[in-house]
Design brief:
By secondary structure, the protein is an alpha+beta fold. It folds into two domains: 2-36 and 297-444, no CATH class; 51-291, Immunoglobulin-like, CATH 2.60.40. It has twelve helices and 16 strands. The protein has a 16-stranded mixed β-sheet that branches. The N and C termini lie close together (7 Å). The mean pLDDT is 86.
Length: 445
């Protein structure tokens, strides 16, 4: 009997650690489904567009400058001079840029996966100082072969819906694809008639609709910038070099606004580097927002399976304590194995169901199914319906606590640690007066 008892609990120990194999396989399945979800997201990105950056914007003045080149003296010792016209550009940053954008979100289905995307209504208003342009016009060695233009960049121009509108006062400008900038080619530009840019300054406005996925960010080339974003998506994540100075977040969506200046962004020097073909630091001044799913089903499932070993261990401890204290039943290792398998199947059920229903409904359906199956099996094996109900109550309590742990973003570690402490304290309290030597000697007989 002593040998049989020792072998039984050795086998239970082997079963406990052996059940980590199916748990690891289920975790691998979760990671595989996550990769498939990412493949679906990339597929939507190819057909809808991906994350969007908006560059707003610079005034570009193309011109030619007359240069006299001395080619040396000829045979008669007369200097030979040649006139060359050098193509050049003057880039002017806006004195101020104001951006207002409203995002309307939706979810596109790709198989069983739903990918969040958005359509943004964007309004841009800016003001340029024309003093540099006036100096160029006053320079007799400068001629203008092309009209000045305003360049507005979009990371993925496939997302532009219709033709963007650019206005100076009441005059609508002709809009052409491409920014005309080497360092930020994607977007559009609007040519400026000379009659529109007389005086010391001029203002413009632009309107566009833009499709994107998850994130929208801005790079404002201005001495002073104001950016505001509002959306019906309730879970924003703000990123970039600057956080919003104001934000409001509710279940109906969010709104946020940013204020930046040339002193904070150093956009002037960064763009000068870009004009010299060095754009490594260009996106360091980005600011934006991302639509996130705070805890997606696969992350929730991964969090839950991290506690799989704990659930199995607690259930087996309850079985062992019942067996030791009741003195009425001996639970076979096969029963431990079948119960542990049912506990492992819970996590696979959770993934399969949550792909088709909400995570909360899938979780409770999977937990009730597995706890009912285990309770039915235990009641039949022990011949006690009350013991089966007791096991079901313990499992459902454990699943309930686990549910709130995996839903928590900021307090998951604290909650999990407190759960472990509570379980250990409960076991120590229940067995505090148990004479283990007497129990073991009784089992050996």
């Amino acid at each position: 009997m002593k040998q049989l008892f020792a072998n039984k609990y050795l086998w239970i120990l082997v079963i406990i650690f052996g059940l980590n194999i199916p748990l690891a396989m289920i975790e691998g399945q979760i990671e595989d489904r996550t990769q498939q979800r990412n493949v679906a997201k990339n597929s939507v990105r190819q057909s809808w567009t991906g994350e969007q950056d908006v560059f707003a914007g610079v005034m570009v003045i193309p011109y030619q400058k007359k240069v006299i080149v001395n080619k040396g003296s000829n045979a008669k010792n007369v200097e030979q001079l040649e006139i060359k016209w050098i193509d050049s550009r003057q880039y002017i940053l806006a004195d101020s840029i104001t951006v207002q954008s409203r995002l309307k979100s939706q979810k596109l289905a790709k198989g069983i996966y739903r990918v969040p995307v958005y359509t943004a209504d964007i309004n841009i208003a800016g003001r340029f100082d024309l003093s540099q342009y006036a100096k160029l016009k006053a320079d007799e060695s400068v001629v203008f072969k092309r009209q000045p233009f305003i360049a507005l960049g979009v990371n993925d121009s496939r997302g532009l819906l219709g033709v963007p509108k650019v206005l100076v006062g009441e005059s609508a400008l002709k809009v052409e694809p491409g920014t005309g900038l080497e360092f930020y080619a994607s977007g559009f530009n609007a040519h400026l008639d000379d009659s529109l840019i007389q005086g010391k300054q001029f203002s413009f406005s632009a309107e566009m609709q833009l499709n994107g996925m998850e994130a929208l960010s801005y790079l404002t080339a201005a001495k002073e910038s104001s950016v505001s974003v509002s959306s019906d998506w309730p879970h924003p994540e703000f990123f970039g070099a600057f956080l919003p100075v104001k934000r409001t977040i509710s279940d109906q969506g969010f709104s946020a606004s940013w204020q930046t200046s040339l002193f904070a962004t150093s956009i002037g020097s960064t763009l000068q580097q870009c004009f010299a073909n060095d754009c490594r630091n260009l996106k360091n001044s980005l600011l934006g927002v991302r639509h996130i799913q705070p805890v997606d089903i696969y992350l929730k499932s991964l969090r839950s399976i991290k506690y799989g070993f704990l659930v199995i261990l607690v259930t087996f401890c309850v079985f062992a304590l019942y067996e030791l204290l009741s003195r009425q039943i001996a639970i076979h290792p096969i029963s431990y194995l079948l119960t542990g398998s049912a506990l492992a199947i819970f996590f696979l059920l959770l993934i399969a169901l949550s792909e088709h229903w909400s995570f909360g409904f899938a979780y409770w359906l999977a937990s009730l199914s597995c706890s009912s199956l285990i309770a039915f099996y235990v009641a039949s094996q022990s011949g006690s319906k009350s013991y089966g109900a007791y096991i079901m109550a313990i499992l459902n309590s454990l699943y309930t606590i686990l549910y709130f742990i995996i839903r928590s973003e900021d307090h998951a570690l604290l909650s999990g640690t407190l759960l472990l402490f509570f379980i250990l304290a409960t076991i120590m309290t229940v067995t505090r007066k148990l004479d283990w030597y007497q129990v073991m000697s009784r089992k050996h007989e």
